[in-house]
Amino acid sequence: MYSDKCVEFNCIQRAHQNTLENYPMFLTFLLLGGLQFPKLSAVFGLIYLAGRVVYAHGYYTFNPGNRNRGAFGYIGFFGLLINTVIFGLTSSGFI
């Protein structure tokens, strides 16, 4: 799956694969959280996506430390997670 000779290709492929691994959770949280908090979920979604773009560009520099610049995207991800949990608790009658 990875190339032994082309480090640049490996970095780009790993950044892409990492994004694909997180994408289903992101879409699920965006959908479910957005049912109760549409505007807030949209803002959190944009923060997450901006973080993924910065993460990918940092990874494309072939310096592993640069990918940490996109860590702010997790603010959006965890915001969506909290929205989803609140939606679930509200829908089930616990709140």
UniProtKB/TrEMBL annotation:
<keyword id="KW-1133">Transmembrane helix</keyword>
<dbReference type="Pfam" id="PF01124">
    <property type="entry name" value="MAPEG"/>
</dbReference>
<dbReference type="GO" id="GO:0016020">
    <property type="term" value="C:membrane"/>
</dbReference>
<keyword id="KW-0472">Membrane</keyword>
<protein>
    <submittedName>
        <fullName>Microsomal glutathione s-transferase 3</fullName>
    </submittedName>
</protein>
<feature type="transmembrane region" description="Helical">
    <location>
        <begin position="26"/>
        <end position="50"/>
    </location>
</feature>
<dbReference type="GO" id="GO:0005783">
    <property type="term" value="C:endoplasmic reticulum"/>
</dbReference>
<dbReference type="GO" id="GO:0004602">
    <property type="term" value="F:glutathione peroxidase activity"/>
</dbReference>
<dbReference type="GO" id="GO:0006691">
    <property type="term" value="P:leukotriene metabolic process"/>
</dbReference>
<dbReference type="GO" id="GO:0005635">
    <property type="term" value="C:nuclear envelope"/>
</dbReference>
<dbReference type="GO" id="GO:0004364">
    <property type="term" value="F:glutathione transferase activity"/>
</dbReference>
<keyword id="KW-0812">Transmembrane</keyword>
<dbReference type="InterPro" id="IPR023352">
    <property type="entry name" value="MAPEG-like_dom_sf"/>
</dbReference>
<dbReference type="InterPro" id="IPR001129">
    <property type="entry name" value="Membr-assoc_MAPEG"/>
</dbReference>
<dbReference type="InterPro" id="IPR050997">
    <property type="entry name" value="MAPEG"/>
</dbReference>
<feature type="transmembrane region" description="Helical">
    <location>
        <begin position="71"/>
        <end position="90"/>
    </location>
</feature>
